[in-house]
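so my prof wants the structure for this chain in the tokens format not the other one, which i didnt know existed until like an hour ago. anyway here's the sequence
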Amino acid sequence: MRVFMAFLLLLSSVSLALGVTMPLLQVQKLYFLSETPSLIQIITGLFSSGDALLGIIVALFSIVFPTAKLLAAHVAAVAPEQSHVLDRWLGPLAKWSLMDVLLVAIAIFAAKTSGLAVAVSQAGLWFYTIATLSMAGAFSIARRTAPPAETERPQAMAHAKAARDTSGVSRAAD
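here's what i got, hopefully its the right format
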């Protein structure tokens, strides 16, 4: 399980770097104008066009939070006893993991249905999706293989003892 988690972490690290830097989509307007922006180019374009707040939001949810979650997964792999602390802080971020993929998919759909442009997904979007899914898998494995937190150990021990007591095993066998 640890080897598979290490593979997923390597895959998500490489895929996230490629997904952020490679073109996400190709937009063609009027048959001869074409743009292929990467996520970084989209964010810098938002800042340069005066949409700094939107640029900050997109940067947070598409680069900062996934990178923080990836680093937390790496820490959980190296120091599993600390993974419960990381899970408490980064657990709520997991709900937003696929938000960027959804937003790009909506943008592609909107461009295709408007008739003004043709949009096609590019490799960056696929790498970003691979990074998101492999990171979710690595986090799931890290949670399952992590030892219980100090506050959970007495409860887990009490639960295990209660399970032994009700399974018909006598106390003398303990």
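also thought this was worth mentioning. DSSP finds seven helices and three strands in the chain.
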